[in-house]
Amino acid sequence: AAVQEALTGDHRLFAVTQRENVDAPSGETLYSVGTVVQIVQTHRMRSGLQVVIQGENRAQALAYSAEHEGALHATLLDMERLTPRNPKDPIFQALDRELRERAVELGTRRGVPNEALSQLIGGIDEPGPFSDLVAYYLELATEEKQRLLEMLDDEGRMRECLLAVERELARMDAQEEIKAQVQSELGERQREMHLREQLRAIQKELGEDEEKDDIEDIRARIRALDLGEEPRIEVDRELRRLERTSPQSAEYQVIRTFLEWVTELPWQERTEEKIDLQLAETILEEDHHGLADVKDRVLEFLAVKKLQSDRSAARDETDAKGSTGHGPILLFVGPPGVGKTSIAQSIARALGRKYVRISLGGARDEADIRGHRRTYVGAMPGRIIQGMRQAGSKNPVFLLDEVDKLGVSFQGDPSAGLLEVLDPAQNSTFVDHYLGIPFDLSEVLFIATANYLDRIPGPLLDRMERVDFAGYTEAEKLQIAKRYLLPRQRKENGLTDEELQMDDQAVLAIVQNYTREAGVRQLERELGKFARKIARRIAGDKLASIKAGGADVRELLGRPRVHPERMAEEDIAGVATGMFYTPMGGDIMFVEASIMPGEGRLVLTGQLGDVMKESARAALSYAKSHWRSLGIPEDALNQREVHIHVPAGAIPKDGPSAGITMATALVSALTARKVRREVAMTGELTLTGRVLPIGGVKEKVLGAIRAGIREIILPFANDADLEDIPEDVRAVISFHLAETLDDVLKVALAEEEHQEQAPETGFHEQAMSH
């Protein structure tokens, strides 16, 4: 818009610089001093308007105004240069000559042709305008150039320009010096490389070519490997790269490490296995007490392996593997300390195979399983390949410990990396990211362990065959302590068999009063603590030997640290005994129900989960809808509030198996009939009164027996689970199988003693006092 307006007038514009770069400049963003220019030529282009201008003189804007849209108008005051009073002064002439010579030198070093320089510099005779020309070509900041423009004194401006030219020349000198120094250093490196090549030639003549010997050694080891076609091509290609790479290069070490990994893996080495079922059974019995179901499953697995191997050999169809078919991948699930890891060691010993264990607890990166690609600094193979190198055998027993503790993070899901490893149809061509070539895992016997089944991803769980490890009974813990734990603790604490002996009562006292677990780890720690206290007394000559009983345990280990629930002291209305299961074992719990005046609300306390709360609501709904058959007074819940509480309020509880326990406590409170204290129960309840099956029967039963319970109510559908309960336990306990809540109440509720003396008002008093 400004150009168009100027073209219609005197062809003059005011060229001025912005103080700051903005898209829509105003008077505040512009300097006041600029240049009046004459438009010489205009040329319209597709992208805009090209204008050729000629500067006339300096001017100062007294004011800026926006009279028309798109263009600013300036009120100008012309500024005249201050020329020197005596142009013939020798000092001034020397300044002019020096500025011209240094300007020519700067132009020459910048690569401007001499003809162009002569024409440019010779075309301006006046010193002032010449200094303006030099200032234009200098690499100065905008503020510096504006300062020179505003400087009206020609001599002062020439001095400033000369200083700027000198600084530019000094900078170029320093730059050239640095460049020369870099070139010199590069020359030194090339000279060093040349000398190293000569040194290598000399070493070769003297037979000291270590690098070549190293490569030849790797070549011989690779040649001895029985690799497939695809791995052989990849390995040979990397070996040729190693030969072409300088030993001083970082790439050399990367390739060399890769080839060393390849040569150290068991591509065809395998342990010859001789399966002796009698020996295997003996080993399992020696190493572990109890676990009959687990031992049976392991022996079945070994028997299948033996049949496959023997019949394959008899038909002369065996290959180098020595067996056919793929065995299952076993998953040992159970609470801590029950022998999952040690059973895997016993299997390896029974098979005569190498044993490798890797812990997956806390692994959050898929590269932990599959490795890193070699492009990363410090790349390594994954844990599977590392374990195979550690085994040195193609068919080890490989324990994947704590598969339920795998984590997921932004680096990926390590459980997804295990899917290929644990699939017999795929793991014959397992590719680790670091190796980049297939490795056969089909002959590896993988065994996984876990504490929590629900934390294992579904696709991973589908690839494994589950073997459940239950907790030990007190009788089994007693035998384990006598056979394994106590002898081991004697040895670790420097005691002999004669110096420390413990009778059954002493061991049981530790089991019952100082441990609360499904396994035996805590039991072993307490036995070790007891043994250390005995060792201290023997070392201090206060004791020669001891045959410890229950009283000695109390004296040395102090007060009991475990306070499990015990059977109630008496029958109480509104209090029923339930059973629960945790990975640390089973136990009993009390469910308390109370009726009080209120607005008909249901209050649930004891830190209950959503499923448990729903069980309580279902129990109340069943009681309301079946009040007549249950013997509940018709108006028992009118203007009454129901409160159900499960003690141990600080511990979160959830699950449906307390359904019949809540219903029994509720019916007992509503009818004022007492619940038998020696009866414990477990089962899920429906709105129609059906009793549905639950899990963890064995652990719950063992926990109930520890608490002194002698009668147990179970869902009818859990009948088959009674086979898992040891014979000695079944001999001392009575089981009642219930299909409906009526079956439960017939066993759980005590007979009414004074039914005729329990009128409606009396019922409310009893319930409220309870």
List the helices and strands and how they pair.
Layout: H1 2-7, E1 12-15, E2 33-45, E3 48-68, E4 71-78, H2 90-109, H3 114-122, H4 127-137, H5 142-150, H6 154-206, H7 210-224, H8 229-244, H9 250-264, H10 277-287, H11 292-314, E5 330-333, H12 340-351, E6 355-359, H13 367-370, H14 383-391, E7 397-401, H15 414-421, E8 430-431, E9 438-439, E10 445-450, H16 458-462, E11 465-468, H17 474-492, E12 500-502, H18 504-514, H19 521-539, E13 546-548, H20 550-557, E14 572-573, E15 575-582, E16 585-597, E17 602-605, H21 610-625, H22 627-630, E18 640-645, H23 659-671, E19 674-675, E20 679-681, E21 684-685, E22 691-692, H24 697-706, E23 711-715, H25 727-730, E24 734-738, H26 741-748, H27 760-769
Parallel strand pairs: 5-10, 5-11, 6-7, 7-10, 12-13, 17-18, 20-23, 23-24
Antiparallel strand pairs: 1-2, 2-3, 3-4, 8-9, 14-19, 15-16, 16-18, 21-22
Helix pairs in contact: 2-3, 2-4, 2-6, 4-6, 7-8, 8-9, 10-11, 10-12, 17-18, 17-19, 18-19, 18-20, 21-23
